[in-house]
Specification:
Helix 2 packs across helix 8 and helix 5 crosses helix 16. 64% of the residues lie in helices and 7% in strands. Strand 4 and strand 5 form a beta hairpin. With 652 residues, it is of the alpha/beta class. The chain has 23 helices and seven strands. It starts with 11 loop residues before the first helix and ends with a strand.
Length: 652
């Protein structure tokens, strides 16, 4: 009689979990779960990736001209020229250098990570990640909310839509998340089509606007007369334009996402992870081309908006508020073309969050799992898409899809990241002894510090929202670190020739390791340790003993490889020495490796740790030492669930 087959359709929950975690590195019982994350990405030519990051950058044309007029009035074109100069001679050189120094998509954060050691460095990075999350998540929610505003402002849309702004914005965000759940190639394909159509329509609107300016000389004459009457001296105009410039900072968005999506750029066949020359060249072309295109559009759109649209039309509730070019499209090209322009603006604003989503999907998994500050599934794309979409939902609900309420946080996030990038490249140039670049980047850093502070003073709500993001990342990260404290964090165990000989010789008998905290290293230390262990642990005299010593270097690191060195001290004491971020995890990894090499379960002997158990547990979380014996046993229990195969732990 045939055995009943166990094969059959898997449960829906299992198939759903498999789909969500597709592409996630497999967990290993013997080694750390995060041995090496899979950061492989589908690669595309630089100009296609430019369309992805340009979704955020180019989409600001939907509202930037109106912001400029509201902020600077008649000085809007001059203030926009200042913005373009800062873009081309400030942000662009900075991020071209960032692309060279950090070509794996980690941006300026990676460059600054090594400035501060241990926990200071980790907390500093978490703070920057908080501002990055502010920038990118607010990009998603603000762009979707602005798309909703353009939708309901269209004259052909029923008035009933005005009362469902939050619901429409949530639908936009849900569809955006669905595209990323489908796949990343689909997102790039949509981005290319949207950017091509949107820039073409903007070129038509701006060209028609410039033609009207050129054929109506009185428009320019009226503007210059009003400008001279209002401000008089040219130097006063320049000074005012410099003061007003920080309010136009939204026009600088897109640079951080430009380097964050670098792994998606197709490089040369000869590229390596250490020297991705083709990828760097493609990223620089991306940044330069996007900046030049945007600079032309910023200046020309500011000119036509300032000269052709009545000042009152820019006020809240008026037809040009937040949609100056859309107003011109309807005014000069008719309702049909205007509606097509509205549709393209709605589409690119809706999908502008794609560049932010792509940046976060590349950025967060490179830091938080490596720090032990995110669960294992954070390395998989689809669960992160669901989490980020949910956060964008929450932000939209809190701010009721209000574009103005989110603008301060968006500008603050953008400016903090650009300022940190400017500092990073200044330090890089100084270390490379490039004096001229050091001075140049130092001046650029000062400009962005001024811009950031001016924006914070004027719109302090941005810092408050950013602080909420930072606090959330800190709390979640530390809770995750605590929850995962007993994981096996060693990615690889390597024994040198002497250590292998020690293990091989003892394998013929019983392998007994004695955990020893490195001290003076004299004969008395090891002689007394052996006497105490044999007395407290009833170790037979005939059994061999090998000392295991761990030196803690950087307890803030979550995972590391383990290099074990064997030494014979004072002619008779065998010692296995290793460096790690934590003592218990290193000893547990060594025991499991010895078991697998010898085929027998090794024994390890500890002394009880003196002092308050809670204090010692806190010392383990922060400094990698403390409750060594019970924590080692707990790490072994989680790594090897079968008690019959688990190494023995003795405490005397």
């Amino acid at each position: 009689m045939a055995e009943p087959s166990n094969s059959g359709p898997r449960p829906v929950s299992h198939r759903l979990r498999q789909w969500l975690l597709e592409g996630m590195p497999r967990r290993s019982r013997r080694l750390a779960a995060f041995s090496e994350p899979d950061h492989s990405h589908p690669c595309s030519p630089w100009w296609k990736v430019m369309c992805l990051t340009g979704l955020d950058y180019f989409s600001t044309l939907g509202y930037q001209p109106g912001i400029a007029v509201l902020a600077a009035g008649l000085l809007s074109p001059l203030a926009t020229v200042v913005l373009v100069l800062v873009t081309l001679f400030g942000a662009l050189p900075v991020y071209r250098r960032v692309a060279k120094e950090s070509p794996h998509g980690m941006g300026s954060i990676a460059m600054l990570e090594h400035l501060l050691p241990f926990w200071k460095g980790k907390l500093f990075v978490l703070g920057l990640l908080g501002f990055a999350a502010t920038d990118f998540v607010i990009t998603m929610s603000l762009s979707a909310a602005d798309a909703t505003e353009h939708l309901i402002e269209n004259p052909h849309v029923p008035a009933a839509f005005n009362h469902h702004q939050v619901g429409i914005t949530l639908v936009f965000l849900a569809v955006l998340g669905a595209v990323f759940l489908k796949g990343f190639k689909e997102a790039i394909g949509v981005a290319v089509a949207l950017v091509a159509v949107y820039l073409t329509l903007n070129a038509v609107v701006v060209t028609v606007g410039l033609w009207h300016v050129a054929t109506s000389p009185q428009v320019v004459t009226d503007w210059t007369r009003a400008l001279t009457t209002q401000h008089g001296d040219v130097f006063v105009m320049i000074a005012l334009a410099l003061l007003v410039f920080p309010r136009l900072a939204l026009g600088l968005s897109g640079f951080e996402t430009g380097v964050a999506v670098m792994p998606h750029i197709k490089g040369d066949p000869t590229d390596t992870e250490e020297r991705p020359t083709g990828r760097i060249r493609g990223a620089r072309r991306l940044l330069t081309t996007a900046a030049l295109i945007m600079s032309v559009f910023l200046i020309t759109s500011s000119v036509v908006a300032t000269l052709l649209i009545p000042a009152r039309a820019f006020q809240p509730g008026q037809p040009a508020y937040g949609r100056a070019l859309a107003y011109l499209a309807h005014e000069y090209l008719g309702s049909g073309f205007g509606s097509v322009y509205d549709l393209s603006t709605i589409a690119i604003l809706w999908f502008a969050g794609a560049s932010a989503m792509a940046g976060l999907l590349n950025l967060l998994p490179r830091y938080l799992p490596r720090y032990g500050m995110a669960p294992h599934w954070a390395q998989s794309v689809r669960p992160m898409v669901l989490v980020l979409t949910g956060v964008a939902f929450l932000i939209t609900w809190i701010f009721q899809a209000d574009v103005d309420a989110q603008g301060g946080a968006y500008a603050t996030g953008v400016l903090v990241l650009i300022t940190s990038a400017a500092f990073a490249v200044t330090i890089a140039a100084r270390r490379a002894r490039e004096h001229h670049w050091t001075v140049a980047f130092g001046v650029i850093s000062a400009v962005f510090v001024y811009t950031t502070l001016a924006n914070v003073v004027e719109r302090p709500d941005g810092v408050k929202i950013g602080a909420c993001f930072i606090a959330a990342i800190f709390v979640i990260s530390l809770l995750s670190r605590s929850y995962r404290a007993f994981e096996l964090r060693v990615t690889e165990v390597t024994l040198d020739e002497t250590a292998e000989r020690f293990v091989r010789d003892c394998a013929r008998r019983r392998v007994r390791l004695v955990a020893n905290e490195p001290g003076e290293g004299d004969v008395a230390e090891y002689r007394e340790k052996i006497r105490q262990m044999r007395a407290d642990g009833d170790i037979p005299v005939e059994d061999d003993i090998i000392f295991a010593e761990v030196i803690v270097r950087d307890p803030s690191e979550f995972e590391s490889s383990l290099n074990v060195h064997g030494q014979v001290l004072h002619g008779k004491y065998r010692v296995l020495r290793m460096e790690s971020s934590t003592v218990p995890n290193a000893l547990a990894a060594l025991l499991l490796d010895v078991r697998d090499r010898t085929g027998s379960r090794p024994h390890i002997h500890f002394e009880w740790t003196e002092g308050n158990p809670l204090t010692n547990l806190a010392r383990f979380f922060l400094f990698g030492v403390g409750e060594v014996a019970p924590v080692t046993r707990e790490v072994l229990r989680e790594a090897e669930p079968d008690p019959a195969r688990r190494p023995h732990v003795h405490v005397g």
